Amino acid sequence: MTEDIVERLHEDPGADVHAGALGRIINAAGILFAIGLLASAAILVIEIFLRYVLNAPTIWAHETVIFLTASAFVYGGLYVVARNAHIRVVLIYDFLPKRLRRYFDIGISATCCLSSAMFAWAAWKGVQRSIWTPAGDFRLETSGSAWNPPTPGLIKVFLLFILIVMTVQFLVLTISYIKKRA
């Protein structure tokens, strides 16, 4: 029993078969964000060394780490959708026969598609304010710190992009579940 669990933990199931080519692309790109998390850890170690050993702190480390980790967490939502690994309450779902599960899968995916589309629309409202000045000139929102990078604006644009792709991924899943034979 325990050996089976450990063995399954070492297997990488990859993208869900119903996620299509988009799911495989999303799954493959996940490594970039994992590397970003490792880079964040390395930056923090470097910052600690610079600050406490050399007494030469940086102005960029904190905001860079926040940007990298925020990007990874935003991408993580899309990643788990492509792998069909998102959290769900399976109290009822597990007791359903396969034929009825198919209808639940269709309903869940369609609902998530609609929800993602509405979240994307709401994110667009935030992006509009973060990439254009009131006069209509393009200017990414900045952090306001001494370094003042445009990371807040970039994260908002990235969130919008991810929500749009997530909407498409849920649409792909919905269509795939509709085509699936019971």
UniProtKB/TrEMBL annotation:
The keyword DNA damage does not apply. Its main location: membrane. It is a multi-pass membrane protein. Part of the tripartite ATP-independent periplasmic (TRAP) transport system. Pfam families: DctQ. This is TRAP transporter small permease protein. One of its GO terms (cellular component) is plasma membrane. The complex comprises the extracytoplasmic solute receptor protein and the two transmembrane proteins. InterPro entries: DctQ, TRAP_DctQ. Residues 42-173 form the Tripartite ATP-independent periplasmic transporters DctQ component domain. The chain crosses the membrane at residues 31-53, 59-82, 103-124, 157-178. Keywords: Cell inner membrane, Cell membrane, Membrane, Transmembrane, Transmembrane helix, Transport. Belongs to the TRAP transporter small permease family. It is found in: Cell inner membrane. One of its GO terms (molecular function) is transmembrane transporter activity.
